[in-house]
Amino acid sequence: MIVYLDSQDYSNIATPPRGREAFFESLGHQLQELADSGDIKIRYSAIHVSEIAHTTADAMKYSVPRARMLKQLSAGKCMRFWNCIADEEVLANFDPDQKVVATNDNDLWFETDMRTLRTFVEHFRESMEETLKERGVNRKARRKAAKLDIKGFITGTEQGRNALAKLANSLNEQFSLDEKLNLEMLTSYVMGSVGKERFENYVRRIMFDPVSLISKLSPEFDLESKLPRIVRDRGQNLVDKLNPSLEKIQQAITRIPKTELHEPLFRDIREMPRNIAANIRRSLVQSSLEENGKGAIGKKPLSNGQIDGLKVPIINTFSGILNRYLDQTVSAAYAGAPLRYFRLSDAADLFHAAYLPHVDVFRCDSAWTNLFLPEQTKYQVNIVGKVEDLLPTIRRRLNTP
Predict the structure, then answer these.
(1) Alpha carbon of 122 to those of 125, 171, 195, 340: distances in Å?
(2) 3-state secondary structure of 44
(3) What is the pLDDT of residue 228?
(4) Parallel, antiparallel, or unpaired: how do β-strands 361-363 and 382-384 relate?
(5) Which of 33-42, 262-271, 312-321 has the lowest mean pLDDT?
(6) Alpha carbon of 364 to those of 56, 294, 353, 373, 384: distances in Å?
(7) Cβ count within 10 A of residue 90
(8) What is the dihedral of CA 15, 18, 21, 24, to 10 degrees?
(9) Boundaries of every domain in the chain
(10) Residue 316 phi, psi dihedral angles, 5° rounding
(11) Can you spell out the DSSP letters for 205-270?
């Protein structure tokens, strides 16, 4: 059973609010027991890491304990980044043998193509070939140089060791590692005593371990190359797309008289949320199709109707909830309430909700519960809006007292 907690749950278990210490200490203890016994798997996502990773030094005293609690309860179990799951869901429409894998272990909550991390020997040999060409060395001499004992040269000469250190610095910059690459580990990899898979796992660990990441100097989270910033930027893009449309809707509602004559115009306004959500869904699916070489049948691009017919649970969930959110917002504005613009924190809640098709128990802010409920029956997931209901829901689903 996969249990997906709200970010606030990790925070409250790690640092209980005053007056609720006993409740959250008991909750944390019981969740840990269920996880240790194998009855449940508590999985986190990149969205949790992004929300926990604060950008002010003052907030670090809270963020690090939260990250430690997240790691303790999950034991490295996580969800894959949601667009990676969506890509496989898209491909499954074209290939019945395509597997859709929603989870990862060992803290691989954000995937990077490690194929660019080639062996240093290959990298060094190519660099040497290019250098010799630039210096006008003839082909015969270059062939002779290519047969040199590169490994011995790298580790046995000052020039080679300097080149190794330079590569380590290059990798630190390229992959935004959250602790410096160990030169001894790199040397062992070059010499062959550490295999490629072990080395790549080592690099991934120092990239994505949540405690290592969040323990870093907090202002660095705002650098574009840092992973929490990548997640936040996706949320900001959604804010930037939605709010101009909401502004136009607000202006239309304000200017158009509420008369029977103008009722057709208001019906069109009420249709705008559905159209906005549908267009965002098409854009997300189209992007995945193009990235995976499935943007056309033969030479003819897929039509909107064909794209709309594809089964992509993660994107369907995301766009469906977005549609209900916008519809609720516009209805309230039409009834006279101030228009509520979309916020960055709303984007995080939507990104969390995209995982609903792939978990069994989903904890969320109670304010979103009604918007999420239509997915409950569709995907046989229990949506829990109140933290007090979390353990009873888990035990009911496990059929234990």
Answers:
(1) 5, 15, 15, 56
(2) strand
(3) 59
(4) parallel
(5) 262-271
(6) 25, 34, 8, 11, 6
(7) 26
(8) -60
(9) 114-208, 231-353
(10) -60, -40
(11) HHHH-HHHHHTS-GGGGGSTTSHHHHHHHHHHHHHHHHHHHHHHHHHHHHHS--SGGGHHHHHHHH
> What is the rounded CA–CA span in Å between residue 331 and residue 346?
18
Share of the chain above pLDDT 90, in %: 43
Nearest to 113 by CA among 91, 86, 84: 84
pLDDT, residue 225, reads 47
Q: Name the one residue in this structure whose structure tokens are 């993660």.
A: 314
pLDDT of residue 221: 52
Q: What is the dihedral of CA 85, 86, 90, 91, to 10 degrees?
A: -30
CA torsion, ordered 261, 265, 270, 271, to nearest 10 deg: 130
Task: Report which residue type is found at 397.
Answer: R
Q: What is the pLDDT of residues 129-170, one digit of tens each?
A: 676 677 676 777 767 666 666 666 666 777 777 777 777 777
Helix segments in 79-209, DSSP class H: 82-92, 120-134, 139-146, 150-156, 158-174, 183-191, 196-208
Task: With CA atoms as reference, report the closest residue to 340 among 349, 348, 350, 330.
Answer: 330
Give me the pLDDT at residue 113, please: 56
Answer for the pair 47, 233: CB distance below 8 angstroms, yes or no.
no
DSSP run (H or E) holding 119: none
Mean pLDDT of the region 201-230: 62
Query: Phi, psi at residue 175, to the nearest 5°?
Result: -105, 5
The single-letter code of the amino acid at 85 is I
Query: What is the predicted pLDDT for the residue at 1?
Result: 96
250's CB contacts (< 8 A; 6+ apart) are: 333, 339
- φ, ψ at 300 (rounded to 5°): -100, 120
Tokens describing residue 36: 């240790």
Residues 319-342 have pLDDT tens digits of 999 999 999 998 888 888 888 899
Q: Give the pLDDT confidence score for residue 305 in this predicted structure.
A: 92
Give the integer Cα–Cα distance in Å for 344 and 240. 10
- Work out the percent of the chain whose per-residue pLDDT is above 70: 78
Question: Whole-angstrom Cα distance, residue 54 to residue 217?
Answer: 10
Give the mean pLDDT of 32-61: 85
